[in-house]
């Protein structure tokens, strides 16, 4: 997501798969040890600054309990048009989220709660992109793969998109090459980078958020009463 203090593309600009985007991305590539590029951290910091005024709202929403969540983030239907329902997590489930980010991301209720938190930080697109990549990996039809890859590019990679995720220039270059012949793995490098960003940057704050603490308290009280 581009913030207001960053230069905007000219009205006639169009997204490109041939490497045009990479010259406009000045963020550094990750090091050998997998460090998140500074550009990603700066973008996430600006989003967090915008989210301060949302804390009271998110706290109030969390206190409504686990049964009133209206999002479809629990499944891999990343278009959010499905009618699936997310199972209520157990107290053991919620405790396990604090032990491992992988456990959080592999449970439907965990993804749902984490996405709710990301929304308060204006970084929900990170989860949406990750889920879109998971959905793409399950596709076998070549035509469908090409169409889904195009939509993912337009929604989350293009510099013209309001939901653009923060990626370094190296990964963008890989994507632009892969888009010449899209496959289920076109966005693998980008998905890993966003997963790592959520793990290192957003996950620790989620564990200290009102959303997680209130969910834990609600389930603890329910378990004690039963």
UniProtKB/TrEMBL annotation:
Annotated spans, Disordered: 1-39, 46-65
UniProt KW Oxidoreductase keyword: no
Compartments in which it is found: Cytoplasm; Membrane; Nucleus
Keyword match Ubl conjugation: yes
InterPro entries linked: RGS, RGS_sf, RGS_subdomain_2
Ranges for domain RGS: 100-216
Ranges of biased composition (kind: Polar residues): 51-65
Pfam families: RGS
GO biological-process terms attached to the record: G protein-coupled receptor signaling pathway; negative regulation of signal transduction
Keywords per UniProt: Cytoplasm, Glycoprotein, Membrane, Nucleus, Signal transduction inhibitor, Ubl conjugation
GO terms under cellular component: cytoplasm; membrane; nucleus
SUPFAM superfamilies in UniProt: Regulator of G-protein signaling, RGS
Superkingdom, taxonomy of origin: Eukaryota
Primary location group: cytoplasm
Matches recorded under PANTHER family: REGULATOR OF G PROTEIN SIGNALING, REGULATOR OF G-PROTEIN SIGNALING 20
Protein name from the UniProt record: RGS domain-containing protein
Organism of origin: Engystomops pustulosus
């Amino acid at each position: 997501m581009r913030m207001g203090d960053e230069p905007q593309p000219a009205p006639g600009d169009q997204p490109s798969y041939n490497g045009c985007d990479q010259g406009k991305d000045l963020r550094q590539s990750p090091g050998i040890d997998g460090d998140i590029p500074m550009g990603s951290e700066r973008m996430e910091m600006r989003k967090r600054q915008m989210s301060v005024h949302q804390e009271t709202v998110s706290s109030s929403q969390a206190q409504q309990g686990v049964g009133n969540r209206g999002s479809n983030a629990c499944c891999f239907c990343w278009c959010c048009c499905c009618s699936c329902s997310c199972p209520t997590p157990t107290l053991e489930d919620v405790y396990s989220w604090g032990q491992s980010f992988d456990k959080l991301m592999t449970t439907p209720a965990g993804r749902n709660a984490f996405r709710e938190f990301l929304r308060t930080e204006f970084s929900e697109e990170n989860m949406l992109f990750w889920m879109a990549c998971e959905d793409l990996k399950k596709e076998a039809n070549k035509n469908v793969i090409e169409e889904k890859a195009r939509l993912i590019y337009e929604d989350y990679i293009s510099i013209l998109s309001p939901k653009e995720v923060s990626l370094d220039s190296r990964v963008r270059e890989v994507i632009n090459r892969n888009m010449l012949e899209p496959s289920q793995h076109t966005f693998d490098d980008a998905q890993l980078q966003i997963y790592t960003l959520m793990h290192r940057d957003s996950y620790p704050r989620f564990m200290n958020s009102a959303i997680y603490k209130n969910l834990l308290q609600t389930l603890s009280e329910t378990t004690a009463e039963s």
